[in-house]
Amino acid sequence: MDDHQIKKDVQRQFSQNAEKYVASESHAKGDDLSLMVDWLDPNPDWMAIDIATGGGHVTKALSSHVSTIFATDLTNQMLATAKKHLDSTCNNVWYVQADAESLPFLDSTFDLAVCRIAAHHFPNPELFVQEVHRVLKPGGKFLLIDNVAPDDKGLDQFVNTLEKLRDPSHGRSYTINEWKKLFRSSSFIEVRSSNRKKTYSFPVWVSRTATTEEQVQEVQNHLCLANDTVKNYFAITIEDGQILSLHVDELMILLEK
């Protein structure tokens, strides 16, 4: 599938589920949002960019700490939905439809950039990383938060297949080593990082993107038929034949230009 079609699929998926992403607890209430502000330590004179804003949760968390923030997203409907929910509380936000791999901004524009729980949809992460580096000022900060795959090839394949079954617009959850290689190739300097297990309530997680009962069943089958090594790694919890929850890996990494 070519990049154009991949991005069309992403736009279609997020247009259909825009309100769900605004309401999603894992997106709206993650403790990484407050931690993000602590790590970035933003200056009130700074200009920020929130790349692939989704429901606007990063923009909401940062807007009171910076001078101006640009909320960008590939999907116009997602931007409009985020704006609707943020307009009453955030008055320093510009909403711009933008491709993370080709940002419509001049070099050295922003003091900080954030991309949260979105990069696994990007078909060319190397272009995304290069673009973030380009639009940041020297010394600018870049915070990436995203689901990541384990280094083990079997576990990597399992979780990426799982995500693709649940959400056809999923591209790839990269490993931490893959991300760090991309950061080094664009001359980013790592400041600090943390990786953790994030828990999903299965019924909520699968219903956010699945559109048919057949699709839900495919996801369930993939989880139920996993071997013990996979079930233990992802803490897949099954009771009375019903999947209750699972864990995925998430990386939070702060970089500097």
From TrEMBL:
Q: What class of enzyme is it?
A: transferase
Q: Which UniProt keywords apply?
A: Methyltransferase, Transferase
Q: What EC number is given for this enzyme?
A: 2.1.1.-
Q: What is this protein called?
A: Class I SAM-dependent methyltransferase
Q: Which residues form a coiled coil?
A: none
Pfam families xrefs:
Methyltransf_11
Q: Name one GO molecular function term.
A: methyltransferase activity
Keyword Methyltransferase attached: yes
What is an annotated GO biological process for this record, any one? methylation
Q: Which family does it belong to?
A: Belongs to the methyltransferase superfamily.
Methyltransferase type domain segment(s): 50-143
Species the sequence originates in? Metabacillus herbersteinensis
